[in-house]
Amino acid sequence: MTTTYAALLRGINVSGSRRVPMPELRDVLTGLGHTGIATYLQSGNAVFRSDHEDENAVAADLRKALHQRFGFAVDCLVRDSGYLAAVADACPFPAAELAGKQLHVTYFDRPVDADRFADLDAPAFLPEEFRLGDRCLYLYAPDGLGRSKLADALGRPRHTKGLTATTRNWNTVAKLVEMTRV
Fold it and tell me: Where does the signal peptide begin and end (predicted)?
């Protein structure tokens, strides 16, 4: 059975460092035997089809291949089309009423317990808010991620220790759902 996936690479092509050109990312994915490959933006979003059914194994193979190709480690998550659509559908904020830069999803490599964020004084950050989902966190930041004090707090090591996580704005979330729709 062929599954459509999105690969979400973390921390590449930022400020000219850790360069992973999208044509080379497509080559790496092709070399791993994946098909129907398309990239979105320059920030490490790729959609592809694969006969492999274990998204964690696909991500591990991709991490290894990227390290071999570029000489540095690249954290990446791989999620199937159904999961991406479910995350978008479960958004607790009114996505249709917000600008894409106001709403973000952080994808985690595994489920995250609310206790991880228990020390956060959420009301102190209003009107910014967050909600946990299934292996994800939704962040409403009305002034955008770059100005978000809540995003900074959520990203502190005590909240993210031991996790692989990568964040996408709502425009990218919606585009990846569209690109993976079968």
Answer: none
Q: What is the spatial distance between Cα 28 and Cα 68, in angstroms, rounded to a whole number? A: 10
Contact residues for 164 (Cβ-Cβ < 8 A; gap 6+)? 10, 75, 77, 108, 109
Distances in Å between the Cα of 88 and the Cα atoms of 1, 7, 40, 158 are 24, 16, 17, 27
Does position 15 have pLDDT exceeding 80, yes or no?
Answer: no
Rounded Cα–Cα distance for residues 54 and 80 (Å): 10
User: What does the pLDDT read at residue 49?
Assistant: 98
The domain defined by 86-180 folds into: Alpha-Beta Plaits (3.30.70)
CATH of domain 3-83: 3.30.70.1280
Burial 142-158 (b: 16+ CB within 10 A, else e): eeebeebebbebbeeee
CA proximity to 98, closest of 144, 149, 134: 144
State the Cα–Cα distance between residues 17 and 62, nearest whole angstrom. 19
For the stretch 45-55, pLDDT in tens is 999 999 999 99
The ranges assigned to domains in the chain are 3-83, 86-180
Tens digit of pLDDT for each residue in 97-110? 999 999 999 999 99
Q: Look at the pTM and tell me if it is higher than 0.90.
A: yes
